[in-house]
């Protein structure tokens, strides 16, 4: 595709304003590919640091980038925001919301190359780090990293334990959505259908879903009391996504379900997970968010 448009003299001869509008719809991978076609397109795609400033803000949902962040990443001079974009991408940084971002511990993650869907998992910790009513509450961030719409099948949320047991959530709801569709920002009351299947229409749209899993007693094992004990038994969490709405696909394809994308968030090892908890006198724990915090 990119070699075709570069061979077409009419594309590069378009007014720069039009080219800017076209290029603004590309993600980073497309910009790199287009920028290899010629020096002129390389300049438009990869040398404009203002473009990368806007891309950083859009992808990670940040309102501004402080000088402190730039100094911490060691970037000065030209192409500051391009380097920040590359650095944050390599770190697999999650987008920012009231329920996600660098202020929250990332206990599991996956940046899928198949289907271009990113997922991260954080913990909604109780004040005393105990499992009340045997429930562990996790928040999963799902981001669309392609230019095509993605439907998140929230009813397929599943937690797999190290033992191979699979748990379905006792409760699950969308707590945040950043998209140009039905809702934007902190979500309010929705229909049951919305919580079952939520669309992410645009590039870098994302949502946060909060799910509570009930841990049943296991044979020959002590009762799980604290959150770190539950987390070390977790292996992975998955939420299916698809390239089409289930309802629309069944109408158009004569009852056939759309093909699914299944990104899987793999949990960190037990030693790393325990590092986020501090033991207090009296056999109690506290969850330390600061150990994960980055700028």
UniProtKB/TrEMBL annotation:
Stored Pfam families: F-box (PF00646)
Superkingdom to which the source organism belongs: Eukaryota
Domain F-box: 8-56
Name the record gives this protein: F-box domain-containing protein
């Amino acid at each position: 595709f990119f070699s075709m448009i570069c061979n077409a003299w009419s594309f590069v001869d378009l007014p720069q304003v039009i080219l800017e509008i076209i290029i603004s719809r590309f993600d980073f991978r497309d910009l790199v590919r287009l920028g290899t076609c010629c020096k002129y397109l390389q300049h438009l795609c990869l040398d404009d640091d203002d473009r990368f400033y806007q891309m950083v803000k859009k992808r990670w949902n940040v309102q501004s980038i402080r000088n402190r962040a730039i100094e911490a990443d060691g970037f000065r001079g030209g192409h500051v925001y391009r380097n920040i974009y590359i650095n944050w991408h390599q770190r697999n940084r999650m987008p920012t919301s009231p329920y996600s971002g660098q202020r929250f511990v990332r206990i599991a993650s996956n940046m899928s190359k198949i289907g271009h869907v990113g997922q991260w998992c954080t913990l909604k910790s109780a004040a005393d780090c105990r499992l009340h009513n045997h429930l562990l509450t996790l928040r999963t961030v799902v981001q669309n990293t392609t230019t095509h719409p993605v439907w998140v099948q929230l009813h397929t949320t599943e937690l797999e334990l190290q033992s191979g047991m699979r748990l379905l959530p006792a409760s699950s709801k969308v707590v945040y959505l950043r998209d140009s569709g039905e809702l934007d920002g902190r979500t309010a009351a929705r229909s049951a259908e919305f919580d079952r299947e939520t669309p992410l229409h645009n590039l870098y749209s994302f949502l946060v879903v909060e799910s509570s899993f009930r841990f049943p007693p296991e044979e020959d094992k002590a009762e799980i009391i604290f959150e770190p004990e539950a987390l070390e038994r977790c292996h992975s969490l998955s939420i299916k996504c698809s390239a089409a709405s289930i309802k629309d696909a069944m109408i158009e394809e004569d009852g056939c379900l759309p093909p699914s994308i299944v990104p899987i968030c793999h949990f960190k090892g037990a030693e790393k997970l325990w590092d986020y908890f501090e033991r207090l006198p009296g056999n109690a724990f506290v969850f330390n968010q600061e150990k994960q915090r980055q700028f």
